[in-house]
């Protein structure tokens, strides 16, 4: 993993909202730090969020840079990254 200065931040967009987040963290961590708890919805419309944090459970799937079903816990934030949660679009 790339090391970053302790307070280096990047700007990401989550469901149309611009956020400043710490550089070098996962998308899942950035979303959780911003108060986002529901990343997607199940087939029964139940809100779902990360469980394992290491790519096994697939509960953290979001659309990242236009690519759906990306596991947020496995993608590192980068400046300008656009993220859409299925939980927000289903409301």
Please give a quick description of this structure.
This protein has 91 residues and is mainly beta.
Any overview of this molecule?
The protein has helices spanning 27-33, 86-89; strands at 9-14, 17-22, 40-41, 47-48, 61-64, 67-71, 82-84. By secondary structure, it is mainly beta. The strands form 2 sheets. Strands 2-1-7-5-6 form a 5-stranded mixed sheet. β1 and β2 (17-22) form a beta hairpin.
Main features:
91 residues, mainly beta, five-stranded mixed sheet, two-stranded antiparallel sheet, 12% helix
Please outline the helices and strands.
Blueprint: E1 9-14, E2 17-22, H1 27-33, E3 40-41, E4 47-48, E5 61-64, E6 67-71, E7 82-84, H2 86-89
Parallel strand pairs: 1-7
Antiparallel strand pairs: 1-2, 3-4, 5-6, 5-7
Structural class per helix/strand content? Answer: mainly beta
Put simply, the count of helices is 2
Strand order of the largest sheet: 2-1-7-5-6
Mean pLDDT across the residues is 91
How far apart are the termini?
35 Å
Strand content: 25-35%
Helix content: 10-25%
The tally of strands reads 7
Q: How would you spell out the order of helices and strands?
A: EEHEEEEEH
Which runs of at least 5 residues are low in confidence (pLDDT < 50)? none
């Amino acid at each position: 993993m790339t090391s970053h200065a302790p307070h280096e931040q990047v700007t990401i967009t989550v469901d149309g909202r611009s956020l400043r987040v710490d550089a070098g963290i996962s998308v899942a961590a950035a979303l959780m730090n911003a108060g986002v708890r529901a990343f997607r919805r199940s087939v029964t419309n139940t809100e779902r969020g990360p469980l394992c944090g290491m790519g096994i459970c697939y509960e953290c799937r979001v659309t990242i840079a236009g690519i759906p079903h990306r596991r947020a816990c496995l993608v590192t934030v980068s400046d300008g990254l656009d993220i859409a949660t299925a939980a927000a679009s289903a409301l």
